[in-house]
Amino acid sequence: HALFCVLTAVALAAPMKVIDAQKIGNLHLGLDSSQVVTLLGKPSKEGKQLEEAATGLTVKDQSFAPKGVVVTLSREKKARVWRVERFTVTSPCEWKTPQGIGIGSSEQEVRKTYGPLLDAENQSPAQLVVGTLYDGVIFHLKKGKVDSIFVGAAAE
User: Fold this and answer.
1) With pLDDT > 90 as the criterion, what percentage of the chain qualifies?
2) What is the pLDDT of residues 90-106, one digit of tens each?
3) Who contacts 151 (Cβ-Cβ below 8 Å, separation ≥6)?
4) φ/ψ of residue 153, rounded to 5
5) Cα(119)–Cα(129) distance, integer angstroms
6) How far apart are CA 36 and CA 75, in angstroms?
7) Sequence-separated contacts (24+) of 40-44 with Cβ below 8 Å
């Protein structure tokens, strides 16, 4: 009887959305730069501030190489707070998406986990896209395993 209730509850759960995959460990889009420092410490390298023509935002990259994380922060012209616009994780980062996918996960695990959310137009043996290139999560694959994970807009 209890098993039936559990199965019913799972069946009634809301379908997964792209935003549900846009988090790796505690890192997610929109996080402010002070929270990034709390999570990752000081960046090992910081890029120059640039204005992105497509978005009008000022952006800068921060690399946390020993942790396998690169974050692009952005802010609007008058804003003081920098926020996570997009980020990439690679080895040795051991963080995973809330669904348990991380560096080293197999292509099959990604397909099984995100099946209905995969973008059929933008997949290849080298990448699987959850959502779209404008708002999604890109799993880069090498030899059938996740080699890096990109979260954010890859295209404008």
Assistant:
1) 72
2) 999 999 999 999 999 99
3) 22, 23, 24, 28, 29, 86, 87, 88, 136, 137, 138
4) -85, 120
5) 5
6) 14
7) 40/64, 40/67, 40/69, 40/71, 41/67, 43/71
